[in-house]
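note to self — DONT lose this again. spent like an hour looking for the file last time. sequence + predicted structure for the chain T wanted, 354 res
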Amino acid sequence: MRPWENYIRDVVPYVPGEQPQGDGIIKLNTNENPYPPAPGVLKALKEMDGEQFRKYPDPSSNVLVEELAKIHGLEKNQIFVGVGSDDVLGMAFLTFFNSKKPVLFPDVTYSFYPVWARLFGIPYETIPVDEGFQIRMEDYGGRENGGIIFPNPNAPTGIALAAGQVEWIAKANPNVVVIVDEAYIDFGGHSARFLLDRLDNLLVVRTFSKSRSMAGMRIGYAMGSETLIKALQNVKYAYNSYTMNMPSIILGTEALKDQTYFEDTVARIVLTRESTAIKLRELGFSFPKSSANFLFVTHEKAPAKELFCALREAGIYVRYFPEPRLKDHLRVTIGTEEEMEVLVRFLTSYLKKI
């Protein structure tokens, strides 16, 4: 080994979902929205003045922050924006998890959490979900910790905690910051946003990647007390003042202005999720009730890895996780009604052969 290699930071990275290319592919592996962004987004994109790109964007992303504050009934100083919720969450780890006590999160959860913890040298402890993959709120009470984070609904299970359970966890841990990752909240469940008025240690993080159909623009945001948001801003400006690019700020703002389109699109996905769930149960699949835009499925007669490979060969991409507690399951994103019909037809044919 060359001497300088001893000083390279060695981390095990997060593995993102595969991004297959080509025609005829049904992509149900990364929980993207199958429908386009709001019409106003596409109109603003066509009208965008490219000459402006020579200038730096507004470091405060003011127009986007203003629109978010208006929609959520908050003050501007209660909103923080970043390059996707991953950027916001990573910044939150760096900002709030600085004690020598372990940060707590579920053992079955978003797999980026342990990556950030190791990257930033943050001690952590995973708390097992129960046999039904449910987060038990009581496991987060009376336990010494340096902070808590969990998705609601959880990933990759899609199971949601009730707002009262989230509130209990935050109240049981008043001396640390509790982060609720609400990437999938628009598809079901109750947002913790409405707890912010009485819980100053709570940070709620969301993304435009799922329900807003803008995964390619990388827009995420956090909501919390003025103190928490100010701390995030300080860390951001100590790292990179211009995290949000100009097109993302402009197009993200437009996406927020068409609430009717947003609600209609989410409703279509939820309807497709429920109809697909009925068909998959008829085929012998089992899965917990999902409050997200995906189903976390298993089949007694079809090993998950073999089914994953068969689907992939047929041009249908779903997500397989090899971890011990997940290896018997597949996470299936909800696509269009037509895409899900193709999936069901393939599964019907496949299962008849085993």
